[in-house]
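Re: the request from the purification team.
They wanted to know what the chain is likely to look like in 3D before they choose a buffer screen. I agreed to run a prediction and write the result into the notebook, where they can find it.
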Amino acid sequence: MTIQERVPLAPLTTLQVGGEARYFAEIKREDELREAVSFAKSRDLPLFILGGGSNIVIADSGWSGLVLRIGIGGISTPELNTDKPNDAKSAAVLFSVGAGVNWDDFVAQAVAQNCAGVECLSGIPGSVGGTPVQNVGAYGQEVSDTIESVRAFDLQRNIIAILPKPACGFRYRTSIFNTNASGRYIILRVNYRLKRGGAPSLKYADLQNHFAAQLAEKKMPSLSETSDAVRAIRRSKGMLIVPGDQDCRSAGSFFKNPILTGEQFKALSDRAAAQSLTIPSYPALDAQHKISAAWLVEHSGFSKGYVAGAVGISHKHALALINRGDAKASDIIALKEEILKKVQAQWGISLEPEPVFVGF
């Protein structure tokens, strides 16, 4: 393992902002991780774990400690132990995936093997190790639906631990890895239980509309067709990384869809009615008492294509804050704060940012 110094971090992120790492190392084996952790502890350096760089904002001052980029690879499908060939698990396939594997590559392999459970998560940038942290989800699926366990290095106990799904504390866009145990674990591998021959998930209206004619003839799309449709929809919204597309220089969705109480929803509805507006209803969101953050942003004065100097909002999706070419992290933060302030003033709702903020 090689420890590098003064490594620029902006090129390693999709938003392409931020300063340098004081120290940097890429980890491809578990023994290298132990060595790197020992290096950091001996110098009292703070650690930051970098995956695919798709959901983070790095400060202009960079990171004063050690950045570890986890490059542990490999996708394997160990046999499941079941004594009942006709039970629900008989169609299950367990995928053990290295934290450094590109997430979309894993989804593609699962779909190619006709294994359902992650097909609606196609096109999401980043690495496998980052998916449990924020319980990554899209189009009606979340990784917690299929995660069986997480293999991680426990910095507190200095051991490798296996955390079964219940121990991960998954909720909407959260887990123990970004809440009460933030900074404690370094994810090494993730085990996903998928269903061979399972039907695709078509919970979201975008997908139902895409396949409307096919579904009208009672023809269920394949996992591959569903995956392709998700990628096409993501591309139309600027949520698919396409080289040369300015709208793709983002950290993805910047704000979470807020979850409201009945009282909060009534207050919001009253505010909307006073402006002759109707809050859009999406069955997949309504089921979890969520509303569209994108609608709130757009109806607070921030339309798609909004420009604020070096930063702006994607022409395709109101939740994607973009680097228009030479932005600094401070520019991104300023736009974020402006949006938060105006949404709060206009709708009485406090939006919660989704990316990880590093070095602030």
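For the purification team: Residues 329-347 form the longest helix (19 residues).
Please add any questions underneath this entry.
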